[in-house]
Design goal:
Two copies of one chain form a homodimer. Chain A is of the alpha/beta class. In chain A, 36% of the residues lie in helices and 26% in strands. In chain A, helix 2 (42-50) packs across helix 3 (66-90) and helix 5 packs parallel to helix 7. Chains A and B meet through helix 3 and strand 5 of A and helix 3 and strand 5 of B.
């Protein structure tokens, strides 16, 4: 099977235009099939605050009210998505920026407001692999932002989960490699020591890492997605920084079954 | 040849969510191939003003500085584009929201700042008909917003011109009908009388209509685009309101050679 490399990028990289440009330049040179999945950066919270909307997080996940979904749609699907695609086109990497709504890429359901009302947030029921693969086979590089819709309502979707679900769906057609890009070079044993990257994590070690607080807050859903991805048949799941993944240096956390 | 119906919608319709929903519902029921091209509405100016950016117009065209291009990208490619696509998907009309950047749909050039510096504004050099037609042939309804890019820079493109250029490009493959949707039912002989719609305008009459101030301001580039479209081989060019075009009533201005 042909290989596809899927990169999930988020805050940190998206907030640093120079670093992002360097990443997109290196990404453009990848010869294998490839795609990007992105959320937002700090700008969505900033714009929300300028507009007087309150920003609430719960377990590292944003609570999305009616005004906030409008802001995140503008920032994710507008500003960020189109800036990424414009950079890629400049690098002669023919890409297409889409959301989960376009071509019915993601069939989602608004999350049940009980026990916690996350607002305009959805969960993925199905990935439209036929549509996505048609783009890929047409030599287009998909750049997917974490917005979808159900019954005409715009919904915020966790970008780590989109990356996992899309990778699982594509793993039926491709040898799939999923890279979660973050600021640090991998999962750190000691939060104060950037060199303490845990090189491999087994699924049996996850609970222990959470219990001992090595993994906390936003890293918990990320790690859970990474393990689910591995268990659902993705060939390679890596958590690392943009610098490490592009230069194939040794510092990274690989998720193993 | 198969028929394609191309609708350019803008301010007025985009600012009235109820009217827009009704238009999109009727649009979804059209059996022929179809697509939408849209600019922004009043919200871009509103957001610009909230963010403290100045809004300048010149001959009915927006002057786009660095902050403004960021705002219009958020509003056009984010908020408006994704809301339209979400509504269409709700109506079981499988659509894809794109800008001129995606799939290199529009090859554009930043406008020469001499004699007037319009800022981050571009002019169309070429339409990527192969890419656009691939979407259409895959039963996807394109929804195109008026943002493009050149050399990595986001640029604002006049939506009326995009509608014209795309219609001309597709007229090699389809019998093409172009509908410019506006608030009034057509071009009015008397601005104070909504019933005074001029039913047909010939290209030879355009200069006279401008000289006699029947056509002024933003309508001048719109009409010029409409005439160019007709002269470059588009089968039908109509200027009318959303109500009239969807219900096929008689009130409309048709552009004739």
């Amino acid at each position: 099977m042909e290989t596809i490399k899927i990169y999930k990028i988020g805050s940190g990289l998206l907030d640093d235009s120079e670093k992002l440009a360097e990443f997109l330049y290196q990404f453009s040179k990848i010869k294998e099939k490839k795609m990007i999945i992105h959320g937002g950066g700090k700008y969505a919270s900033k714009l929300n605050s300028i507009l007087g909307n309150e920003v609430i997080f719960h377990d590292g996940r944003r609570v999305t009210d009616e005004k906030t979904i409008e802001v995140v749609t503008m920032v994710y699907a507008g500003k960020i998505n189109k800036s990424i695609v414009a950079s890629l086109q400049k690098n002669n990497c023919n890409s297409i920026g889409i959301s989960g709504i376009d071509g019915n890429l993601l069939i989602v359901k608004k999350r049940n407001p009980i026990p916690i009302d996350f607002g305009y947030v959805g969960d993925i029921e199905e990935v439209n692999t036929t549509f996505l693969n048609a783009l890929i086979q047409n030599e287009l590089v998909p750049v997917v932002c974490s917005i979808a819709a159900s019954n005409g309502e715009l919904l915020n979707i966790n970008a780590d989960t989109i990356a996992k679900e899309i990778s699982v769906a594509l793993s039926k057609l491709y040898t799939t490699e999923l890279y979660y890009i973050m600021d640090k070079d991998g999962v750190l044993q000691d939060a104060n020591n950037d060199a303490s990257v845990i090189q491999k994590i087994k699924s049996t070690e996850l609970t222990q890492l959470i219990d001992s607080k090595v993994i906390s807050e936003g890293m918990i859903p990320k790690l859970k997605n990474a393990f689910d991805a591995k268990q659902e048949g993705i060939n390679k799941v890596v958590i690392t920084s943009a610098t490490n993944v592009m230069q194939e240096l040794s510092l990274k956390t690989e998720i193993i079954s």
